[in-house]
Amino acid sequence: MGMADFLEIVKRQWLVIAMITTLVVAAALVFGFVQKPVYEAKATCVVSPTASGQNEYGAVQVITVLLNTINEVAVSSPVLEGAAKRLGAAVGLNQLKQDVASQVIVNTQIIAISARAETPVKAMNKANAVAASLVDYVNKKTGENSNYRIEQLDPAIAPKSPVSPRPVKNGIIAFILGLILGTTVAILIDSR
């Protein structure tokens, strides 16, 4: 099938393409507006050496190795239990396991803790509670004579807009998918 044949099919079946595209876009927009909004807030913690002078380079090397471990500890049960206690009865451990994630920011000594919730304030509170619990847990485990310490760098702030749903973005994607689906159906109908 050449371009001329394709354009002829589009001319003959434009109504099918338009109807399918419209249906797909409408379904995506309705789904987007019916969905409850989800907000995400991020808090950051920094792991830094406590040693000075000759030992500082060694402490930085230890931190580099330990960052991934501390990142995993951030979403572990003991840390999330501590966060749940800070949040009170409003949030349980299982909910935190679903709503919280952490990641090491590449080429830094920073761990970003993100939390999702149905309101901006709840997302902020979750992220800050997990960050505070991580700081307490790691510093208590390593003790005062450790080569490194962890502290909260930036507290989470309440996000202004949700991370989901995104009706405009979803509408654009649905439009493109609708055109593809509509054109495919048009070609199938025309080839009969």
Features:
192 residues, alpha+beta, Alpha-Beta Plaits, 7 helices
- By DSSP, the count of extended strands is 4
**Could you give me the name of the CATH homologous superfamily of the largest domain?**
EIF_2_alpha
Overall morphology: elongated
CATH topology of the largest domain: Alpha-Beta Plaits
Please count the helical segments: 7
Uncertain parts:
none
Percentage of helical residues? 55-70%
Total number of domains: 2
State the separation between the terminal residues, measured CA to CA.
15 Å
CATH architecture of the largest domain: 2-Layer Sandwich
State mean pLDDT (0 to 100 scale).
86
Strand order of the largest sheet: 2-3-1-4
Given the helix and strand composition, which structural class is it?
alpha+beta
Query: Which range does the strand content fall in?
Result: 15-25%
| Rg of Cα set | 25 Å
- Largest sheet descriptor: 4 strands, antiparallel
What's the SSE pattern? HHEHHHEEHEH
Give an overview of the whole structure:
By secondary structure, the chain is an alpha+beta fold. It folds into two domains: 58 residues, no CATH class; 116 residues, 2-Layer Sandwich (Alpha-Beta Plaits), CATH 3.30.70. It has seven helices and four strands, in the order H-H-E-H-H-H-E-E-H-E-H. It has a four-stranded antiparallel β-sheet. Helix 4 crosses helix 6.
